[in-house]
Write a structure and sequence with these properties.
heterodimer, A: 301 residues, mainly alpha, two-stranded antiparallel sheet, B: 240 residues, alpha/beta, Rossmann fold, six-stranded mixed beta sheet, four-stranded antiparallel beta sheet
């Protein structure tokens, strides 16, 4: 237990990334009762857009780290949001009134399509994300190592989630999103334009997912065209652990999963990291299928 | 209060619901200021008719006109914006939201307007809701949820209020008070269509009534005539 604080911070960092991605799954599920299987690829897209700005175009050297990070965060979120909006228009909206299975198949197709587009454009090799924006500072607090970059990723993710939380709970549009997630028909009777809510959800979710991809690139320093698969799966797990469809649930689920994984990695075995995550999913599904925050789970896929 | 300006007209409305035709050619008129009730047994097509007026279900035939404008081609949020709101069957309040949030959602189409006077009005109508203002709607009793559903529908300042089974599952004493409130809302100038299985109470309140049977209009008359109509007495009012 020597490096417990260190591990906890690491767990929260990884967890906050899962949480960002999980929010996209949970918001879309909440309103549409659909798992957006292409969400992991939107995450990957965010990593590659970040790669273009920070590595290919070397904005860090050009603008200085602070402006480069700010600009990249905004642009990557915006571009992935546009991609998500387009995805909804092309792959989901035409199937809004069809069988649910049709939308699921379309989602899987979109996922494979996007993954291959990314591979064709940027290649199938791992790419080094050596943006070297942040100095490699490591603080020593009471014998525990706390790297700056870890805190940076965690704080960015938390700030964004806080913003989302306020948006959902304090604004008129946020109220409409929550209403549509609770009872779409009743929301319509209130005068909520549900199509517009769905469009907004397909902008916010991908923006957060894309941002997570960027953060993973900056944090781990390497990206790959199929990185969205495992992150998507983990984040989906986090969403289910928290209670899919529930926004605070996705945040909590992400952090819980990150902590479980990291602590398992450190104190049991690194080889068991993924197994621990999915055992947690199975246990939740068996013993508390509504998730930590008690939300109804997918009755149908 | 009949004879006023024509507010809503259904012309030969046909609605299919889940592949089954639920309403077969219903024609109906509602004038400004009226309280009209639609009666009929379960599955008579009453709720489907209201959902078609609200634009949630699209009719497969016929037309709906509101203030001279065809509305069956509009989306549900556009219908609400024109001034038609609904308190649906089963109340359908937003359980994980507070009473106040539910009421604010009712005024969703009134973007940027001051809602305080309307909140005050609803709380005067239903003082119980004021006590529970910051409580989750899901924790309210059935009667309180019904009050909330009606109050929520009033928040949009509707011209036409559609009430679907407001007495369903409520204690008799509460039913009486809800019906009195509905009368009061109507007298304050809101036109109302009331769908009810509690036919006697509805007819005592209403100006006119329509009786549906499996999607067909079988009777249409002044409420007091329907109350005394032997056919209606036998089928819907019991043998009292």
């Amino acid at each position: 237990m020597a490096h417990l604080v260190e591990q906890l911070i690491y767990g929260l960092t990884v967890g906050s990334i899962y949480a960002l991605i999980a929010l996209g799954y949970t918001m879309v599920y909440g309103v549409m009762k659909l798992i957006n299987f292409a969400h992991g690829e939107l995450f990957t897209l965010g990593a590659y857009f970040g790669f273009v700005f920070l590595v290919t175009l070397n904005w860090g050297g050009f603008f200085g780290p602070a402006i480069a990070i700010g600009l990249t965060v905004i642009l990557v979120s915006g571009l992935v949001a546009m991609a998500g909006h387009l995805l909804e228009r092309v792959a989901y909206r035409p199937l809004r009134h069809s069988d649910r299975l049709a939308a699921v198949v379309s989602a899987l197709g979109a996922s494979i399509f996007l993954q291959n587009v990314i591979m064709v454009v940027w290649g199938s090799r791992y790419r080094a994300f050596n943006a070297s924006l942040l100095p490699t500072v490591v603080w020593q607090v009471g014998g525990q190592n706390i790297p700056l970059i870890r805190l940076f990723v965690f704080l960015v993710a938390v700030a964004v989630m806080l913003g989302l939380y306020l948006f959902i709970n304090r604004t008129r549009l946020g109220l409409a999103i929550r209403a549509a997630a609770i009872d779409q028909g009743a929301a319509k009777l209130m005068g909520v334009d549900v199509s517009r809510v769905i469009a907004v959800v397909f902008i916010i979710g991908p923006a957060l997912g894309g941002l997570a991809g960027l953060l993973v690139g900056i944090y781990y320093g390497q990206i790959n065209f199929n990185m969205g698969q495992i992150y998507g799966l983990k984040a989906f797990t986090a969403a289910v652990i928290g209670g899919i469809g529930n926004i605070p649930g996705a945040m909590i689920g992400g952090l819980v999963l990150g902590l479980l994984e990291t602590l398992g990695d450190a104190y049991i075995s690194g080889a068991w990291k993924d197994a621990i995550a999915f055992v947690a999913l199975i246990l939740i599904l068996v013993f508390r299928p509504t998730g930590i925050l008690r939300e109804r789970v997918a009755e149908k896929l | 209060m009949t004879g006023g300006e024509l507010l809503l007209e259904l012309k030969n409305l046909v609605v299919s619901y889940g592949g089954v035709e639920a309403v077969h050619g219903l024609s109906l008129k509602v004038h400004k200021g009226e309280l009209v009730t639609i009666l009929g047994a379960n599955g008579a097509g009453k709720s489907t008719t209201l959902m078609a007026i609200s634009g949630v279900v699209r009719p497969s035939g016929g037309e709906i006109h509101f203030q001279g404008r065809r509305i069956d081609v509009l989306k549900s949020h556009e219908v609400v914006a024109l001034g038609i709101t609904q308190s649906p069957e089963g109340r359908r309040v937003f359980g994980p939201m507070t009473v106040e949030e539910n009421l604010k959602l009712g005024a969703f189409t009134r973007k940027g307007q001051d809602l305080e006077p309307d909140l005050k009005l609803v709380f005067e109508l239903f003082p119980r809701l004021l006590e529970r203002r910051y409580q989750m709607a899901g924790t309210l009793s059935g009667g309180e949820q019904q009050m909330l559903a009606i109050g929520r529908a009033l928040m949009a300042q509707p011209k036409l209020l559609l009430l679907d089974e407001p007495s369903l599952g409520l204690a008799p004493l509460l039913v009486k008070s809800i019906f009195e409130t509905i009368k009061g809302i109507n007298e304050s100038g809101v036109t109302i269509i009331l769908v009810e299985q509690n036919a006697r109470a509805a007819l005592k309140l209403a100006d006119r009534g329509y009786v549906l049977d499996v999607g067909h209009l079988v009777l249409e008359d002044k409420a007091e005539h329907l109350l005394n109509n032997p056919q209606v007495r036998d089928a819907y009012l019991g043998s009292r």
